[in-house]
Amino acid sequence: MISNKQTTRICLWSGPRNISTALMYSFAQRSDTHVFDEPLYAHYLSKSDARHYHPGAEEVIATMENDGEKVVQDLILGASDAPVLFFKQMTHHLIDLDWGFMAQTVNVILTRDPFEMLPSYAKQVQQPTLYDVGYAMHLELLHYLQKLGQTPSILDSKQTLLNPRAVLSQLCEQIGIPFDEVMLRWPAGARPEDGSWQKYWYDAVHRSTGFQPYRPKEGDFPEGLRPLLTQCQPYYEKLAALAIQA
Prior knowledge:
This protein is an alpha/beta fold. The protein has twelve helices and five strands.
């Protein structure tokens, strides 16, 4: 149960190697918003084989709440004085968990072209699977939310980077909060909300002071990732067709 009904609770459901951390930094600039970095990560690691191959997994498990239901009740739906709460989430973290809490949250789905995402992810996680990268679960989540009567906003990283102001303005309108220009810039460096995994994944966002201009990936696509790309592409295309445009 939401203790403070005036609080807007935004869950950004992303996959890995996207602009989810940049969006967390963006929302963190708002004076009305508190942000949280992947609060269900330890729950996911403690219940999946990812514990054995995600960098820094044991530290995450040791320092965060492992019980996803407690995270939902105590944090995501817990009491808050902040007008807006922003939870950066990963769709593939939604395992062995009752999804019903999403009836009480504002849900946004963030996707990225797997042609650009997969080579980046494979630098940290060898031989990734469809389950690791979340595309199928994104579509499953979309259908679930639609059955709840929701029309979740969908972001595509390319469109967001092409025109951050236009896309974020539309997003804020859709989720019922005013757009604020401060969302477009932030100080370089880490944030106190960053998870312990920042040292493996956040180098680029720590160097940034805002959304970076979109640049297509250069170089040859790794042949070993072609089968996974073929699996991911249909899911991505369905989401991209619904995404907010620049």
